[in-house]
Structures are given as structure tokens and as C-alpha cells.
Recover the amino acids of this structure.
């Protein structure tokens, strides 16, 4: 096993490497990504294992951090968060203090789904879900405009989501 950095700075956890994950593990992972509430008995039947062997494998995948959590995927439209906005942010500097301050502050904005440190024209790319342009204006005024170290911001509104998945490819 190798040590992998989690998204919490300074926190490490042992994680299985892909070489330690066999074909049965990959089938388990693929099924759980699509049907997280599948029963162990059904999962075992679908991967051709006994329920106890399947349960042990799932536990191992959880304990090693390959399976980090189980979540419910919500319908953004049903929650009136049907508009996705991508915000490119350029910072005024690249020092650790500027980057850390920005990252700490952006984590506190509940509307931000994702924040990525980028290589390219922007320093960060945010994915935000909002009700409409007025809602984005509120978030911009209350949160985004107050982020530390921001030199420039460009926002793009998604017209339509063509494809979306949360499933990470698990094939070798």
C-alpha cells in the first residue's frame, strides 16, 4: 500500500493501489458507483461471490480508502439549482499564503461544488450551482467578490448539461 494525500491538507490515509485491485474489485466498484444502495446480497450475486466474501471485499475497499464515502445524488432542478456557472479566477500572486488564504475562504462558500487549482490561463476554476442570474449576482456580491487575493474573475454560464457522471473509470 502507498500513502495518498486526501483533500484535507496534512492528512494521510493508506490507499490501495490499482495493482492491488483485481477484476472482481473493479466490478464491485463499478456497480457501487452506479447503484450505491444495492444490497450486499444483490452485489454478491452480480459479481459472482458469496455474500460474506463480497462484504469482506467492500470492507477492504472502504478501509483502504478506495471507497471514500457513500452519497445521494440530488436533482439540481428539483432543488431550484438548475444553472451551473464556471468561474475562472486569477490571483494576484502565487505565494503559499495567497493560495492557502484563497482555498480556505472558497471552501466556506456553500454554493461552490468544486474548486480546482489549474495550470493554464486561470489559477482556479470553480463550479457553482445557482437558481438563476440573480442568485449568481447574490453569491458574487456576498462571497466571490470578497475572496482574498483575487485579481481577475471570468464567469461562464452553462446553457445545457450534455453529459455528467460521478463514476470514475475502474477498468485496467
Amino acid at each position: 500500500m502507498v500513502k495518498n494525500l486526501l483533500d484535507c491538507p496534512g492528512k494521510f490515509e493508506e490507499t490501495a493501489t490499482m495493482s492491488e485491485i483485481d477484476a472482481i474489485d473493479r466490478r464491485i466498484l463499478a456497480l457501487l458507483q452506479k447503484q450505491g444502495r444495492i444490497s450486499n446480497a444483490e452485489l454478491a450475486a452480480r459479481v459472482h461471490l458469496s455474500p460474506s466474501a463480497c462484504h469482506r471485499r467492500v470492507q477492504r475497499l472502504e478501509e483502504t480508502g478506495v471507497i471514500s464515502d457513500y452519497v445521494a445524488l440530488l436533482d439540481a432542478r428539483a432543488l431550484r439549482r438548475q444553472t451551473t456557472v464556471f468561474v475562472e479566477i486569477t490571483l494576484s500572486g502565487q505565494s503559499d499564503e495567497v493560495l492557502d488564504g484563497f482555498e480556505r475562504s472558497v471552501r466556506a462558500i456553500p454554493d461552490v461544488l468544486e474548486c480546482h487549482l489549474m495550470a493554464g490561463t486561470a489559477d482556479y476554476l470553480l463550479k457553482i450551482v445557482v437558481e438563476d442570474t440573480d442568485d449568481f449576482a447574490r453569491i458574487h456580491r456576498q462571497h466571490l467578490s470578497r475572496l482574498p487575493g483575487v485579481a481577475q474573475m471570468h464567469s461562464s454560464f452553462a446553457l445545457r448539461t450534455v453529459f455528467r457522471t460521478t463514476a470514475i473509470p475502474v477498468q485496467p
Observations:
- Helices lie at 23-34, 40-47, 51-63, 96-107, 133-142.
- The CA atoms of residues 95 and 101 lie 10 Å apart.
- The first strand starts at residue 2 and ends at 5.
